[in-house]
Amino acid sequence: xxxxxxxxxxxxxxxxxxxxxxxxxxxxxxxxxxxxxxxxxxxxxxxxxxxxxxxxxxxxxxxxxxxxxxxxxxxxxxxxxxxxxxxxxxxxxxxxxxxxxxxxxxxxxxxxxxxxxxxxxxxxxxxxxxxxxxxxxxxxxxxxxxxxxxxxxxxxxxxxxxxxxxxxxxxxxxxxxxxxxxxxxxxxxxxxxxxxxxxxxxxxxxxxxxxxxxxxxxxxxxxxxxxxxxxxxxxxxxxxxxxxxxxxxxxxxxxxxxxxxxxxxxxxxxxxxxxxxxxxxxxxxxxxxxxxxxxxxxxxxxxxxxxxxxxxxxxxxxxxxxxxxxxxxxxxxxxxxxxxxxxxxxxxxxxxxxxxxxxxxxxxxxxxxxxxxxxxxxxxxxxxxxxxxxxxxxxxxxxxxxxxxxxxxxxxxxxxxxxxxxxxxxxxxxxxxxxxxxxxxxxxxxxxxxxxxxxxxxxxxxxxxxxxxxxxxxxxxxxxxxxxxxxxxxxxxxxxxxxxxxxxxxxxxxxxxxxxxxxxxxxxxxxxxxxxxxxxxxxxxxxxxxxxxxxxxxxxxxxxxxxxxxxxxxxxxxxxxxxxxxxxxxxxxxxxxxxxxxxxxxxxxxxxxxxxxxxxxxxxxxxxxxxxxxxxxxxxxxxxxxxxxxxxxxxxxxxxxxxxxxxxxxxxxxxxxxxxxxxxxxxxxxxxxxxxxxxxxxxxxxxxxxxxxxxxxxxxxxxxxxxxxxxxxxxxxxxxxxxxxxxxxxxxxxxxxxxxxxxxxxxxxxxxxxx
Length: 771
Prior knowledge:
Elements: H1 14-38, E1 43-44, H2 45-54, H3 56-59, H4 63-74, H5 97-100, H6 112-126, E2 134-138, H7 145-159, E3 168-175, H8 202-205, E4 216-220, H9 233-243, H10 247-255, H11 260-264, H12 269-282, H13 285-289, E5 292-296, E6 307-310, E7 321-322, H14 324-334, E8 342-343, E9 353-356, H15 362-369, H16 371-376, E10 378-381, E11 384-387, E12 391-396, H17 402-405, H18 408-411, E13 414-418, H19 425-436, H20 448-458, H21 466-471, H22 487-494, H23 504-509, H24 512-521, H25 532-546, H26 555-562, H27 576-596, H28 601-614, E14 622-624, E15 631-633, H29 636-647, H30 653-678, H31 687-702, H32 712-719, H33 731-748, H34 752-764, H35 767-770
């Protein structure tokens, strides 16, 4: 007899149990997060009114206010440009990364010009003056229009799921018992209009439920009516006056155009007729309001709920929507057929967004059909009138504008916003980094990658700029490092930056009217030249050609690459490459001067303080300085030495005398009387002292490289840096070269090898003599 083998009980290991527990915990956390994020429990009307009284700004908003709030939720307050130059021009530095880049599958990079256009448009939504328009974003193929709009609507959809993005719609909860339950309704509920529609005798298709499984018949308003519209219009203002205690908001609500809809709009025909029928049946408005709730309205592009996007090939929807079963239940409950549960596709985006992706094919007809709705905010659904308040947006290529431009009635209903090719070289660089990785910057010497972007952008700019030429009356002053068309200057201005090489006189002339004219002219730019897709192809070709080289990609290599006899590069303005190279050389020289420059701050401060003390006396006198204790022999030479450093060696005696008088006047009227005596500031903290310190050190730096120009020993020492041979040089030379290399690394983002490379470049090109 064989013995029966007993299997040993199987026990899961501790690690397996822990893994199961972690998975369960993760699933529970996921469930909680989804429940908290996605839950939209209806809010009883009474509770909704309490919320409206507590947080009226968050509750009382339509699609235009919601869109405005969404943009400002994702985009921080812009930083002012050209500070300290009087009146602002509204050309702010906006960080749009949270709106268009973060968590977006296909990021869109908004340059400063476009960001300001968008923010100006959106800020107009807040005052309620831009309803009854369609907003068309116009740009050439490859400018990123589709990406822009897709990301914008995606973020709007996500915003409605956030507490800050709550927007409410009416939700009906009809109390079946209070209304007497469902009864057989012998009358037919008639279709509205066309007999060929699929709306027939309710008795023929449906049997009344013997026991309806729910206490309430629940459904949302298909037009997304705001719950406050359920308060009859004639009583609404008085009611809100009693409900809201915030006096400031109440004043805005009753007087500002952005809240005009709260007092003037009426519910859709479904909610209106349902309210009236319930009032007739129940006789008590309070009982009607008990059957009304508010529900958060989450937008969902996939289902066309709150956001609908139509591509050119999407055919038009010709029939209205209805819900035959719900219609039957409502009629059976109310014992009448006054409530017509029928609506159009436009109702799905009422208080939402309807977008047309390119005005082509079916979208041409769709745009024309929307004309009446855009103008009047109302249209017919069979015999019923449906009111529509939608944010209508669209994309259009310049060549497709002819489909609507000749229709006169459209001309005052369209607001166009330009989406040109990128005109800000910093943004262009961000696109390259996004496509090819952030580490591409490490393959170029500092500044060279930005110059690649400038070459691309040069093809997108107009050569003629009367606005800039009326400001820069003597461009010849900058001919050594700026192109004849001043495109390099324009590029810096489009980034909100004033180049350091612009003279003081021209900076002073850059007043708000000039700035506004230049920015207004940017509307004409960016419709030609290299498209976004072409730019990426060109950059990839450049990168592939040079990235495997032992050394970093230099400006010489970039110049040679774009200087090829290639039809593609004919887009680059004539002479621009050389001017860009010259400006790069000028910038490199300034970096090297800044890096090798060494000065004694205390000594410079004493020189400035002594000068400010001495200008109070005539030449030939001797006085002890109140600021430093130095005994000063005040002579013409004393003044001349200081003024040559501050003003430059080429300055005339007339200009030096004028400078001394201007400085003395400011010292007496402001520095001494106001800042020192009244405010108690030390001389070193006065505005005049700081201004002189900046000019003094700037001019000292200009001559910092002079001792080493043409010095072969200096060049050899740089080549020997970080090698045993470097120890053979004298201590001062080694100190200066260490300082040069370290400062280039710390201040200008060079690597040690890149610093050596650029220093040798500057010496071999004899940049000191060139500028």
